[in-house]
Specification:
Cofactor: Fe cation
Number of domains: 2
CATH topology of the largest domain: Dehydroquinate synthase-like, alpha domain
Domain Alcohol dehydrogenase iron-type/glycerol dehydrogenase GldA: 8-177
Bound molecules: nicotinamide-adenine-dinucleotide
CATH class of the largest domain: Mainly Alpha
Family: Belongs to the iron-containing alcohol dehydrogenase family.
GO molecular function: alcohol dehydrogenase (NAD+) activity; metal ion binding
Keywords: Oxidoreductase
Oligomer: single chain
Shape: globular
Distance between the termini: 26 Å
């Protein structure tokens, strides 16, 4: 077997590493994209202090799950008012980072609908102009700081778009676990489970290889051990750091494989049933593990190195973890009938991410 792994992001990790931002952005005019609570938490002041007059534009009203309804106006104001900045720094969870990824892709007209029309084709394109992205995650979950993807939601039309271009790889990722100390318990759970889902989805994936497996297995071991303990001690520097590293490893794993069936199912559950992303893509993990098992000897071996050789026990371990952090694991728990659940799974298997799933042909 031969393997190839490629990730171009210059990745900085460690407590206090945000301090490196000043050196990284030298010579650049910078726009900041961040979440509404960031100012109250002192984060905007911290960035202002680090960048001084190089910080020329601030967007601080990023909403969870960037939606076309809100992005349109932000995008057009950004290209009208901040065209002189060459770098965008996203400080926030996946919503801030994905918003920034959409912003840096400039259309000829500066109109958002031109970008949407390009996204709707589902084909790669070369943007008329773009800016460099620095991503500093404040949640330990999405891995968006080391992937080129952005999820753009259109909740009114029950649709989602996936943005992925060469320029949407962040140039630099700064993973500073100190920024995650203020993440509330519910978001700590949903983001931690998102990372667990990334790692597992990269294993039961047609694009998996021994290099992505190495990142994924390490991430899973850390999350299984760390997440329940972190919930009992949200202010622990050690546990925040371990979860940040686990989420980074999971991000590295799926940066090369993409996600699979659990994520494909999640899009329907978020759009139609309003589930937060991290819950939507993790409550089915025990089910999807069962569907993955037994299709590919090499994939089974990787899963068994984590969970042992007994499938029922492996599923129980995942179910127990989810229950221990307050997440229910059946479709019925979310008001979805058995018939609708089957339809959601079948639909998800036809999606681009569903087709990455190793059990896709058999299911
Ligand atoms: N691009 C990718 O590869 C990728 C992967 C997974 C998920 N996503 C996307 O990421 C989004 C979800 O991101 P998320 O799970 O990180 O949540 P989020 O960014 O939506 O943040 C969740 C909530 O936590 C708050 N918050 C964030 N950091 C905080 C902090 N340090 N202290 C206090 N509050 C804080 C936010 O304001 C928000 O209210 C979804 O849109 C999803 O589609 C993208």
């Amino acid at each position: 077997m031969t393997a190839r792994f490629h990730n171009p992001v210059d990745t900085r990790f460690g407590w206090g590493s945000l301090q490196q931002l000043a050196a990284i952005t030298q010579q650049h005019k910078v726009a900041l994209v961040t979440f509404p609570e960031a100012r109250g938490l002192g984060l905007v002041a911290r960035i202002e202090e680090l960048l001084g007059e190089r910080l020329v534009y601030v967007i601080e009203d990023v909403q969870p799950n960037p939606d076309v309804a809100h992005l349109r106006d932000t995008y057009e104001r950004f290209w009208a008012d901040a065209d002189d900045c060459s770098m965008v720094i996203a400080v926030g969870g996946g919503s801030a980072i994905d918003t920034a990824k959409a912003l840096i892709v400039g259309t000829e007209s500066g109109r958002f609908d031109e970008l949407l029309a390009l996204l709707a084709t589902g084909k790669p394109f070369v943007p008329a102009r773009s800016k460099q992205l620095i991503a500093a995650p404040t949640t330990a979950g999405t891995g968006s700081e080391v992937t080129p993807w952005a999820t753009i939601w259109d909740s009114a039309s029950l649709k989602k778009y996936s943005l992925h271009l060469d320029c949407t790889w962040p140039k630099v990722a700064i993973i500073d676990p100190q920024l995650m100390l203020t993440v509330p318990a519910s978001v700590t759970v949903s983001t931690g489970l998102d990372a667990l889902s990334h790692a597992l989805e990269s294993i039961w994936n047609v694009n998996a290889n021994p290099i992505s497996d190495t990142f994924a297995m390490a991430a899973i071991a850390d999350i299984l051990d760390c997440l329940p303990r972190l919930l009992r001690d949200l202010s622990s520097q050690e546990l925040r750091t371990r979860m940040a590293l686990a989420a980074l490893k999971a991000g590295m794993a799926f940066s090369n494989t993409k996600t699979a069936l659990a994520h494909s199912i999640s899009y329907e559950m978020t759009l139609r049933h309003g589930l937060p992303h991290g819950i939507a893509c993790s409550f089915t993990l025990p089910l999807v593990l069962g569907l993955a098992w037994g299709h590919d000897q090499e994939r089974d071996q990787t899963l068994q190195r984590i969970f042992g050789s007994d499938l029922a026990k492996a599923q129980a371990q995942l179910r127990d973890l989810l229950h221990s952090v307050g997440v229910k694991t059946e479709f019925a728990d979310y008001g979805v009938t058995a018939q609708d659940a089957e339809a959601i799974i079948q639909f998800a298997l036809q999606g681009a991410r569903g087709k990455n799933f190793i059990g896709c042909q058999a299911a």
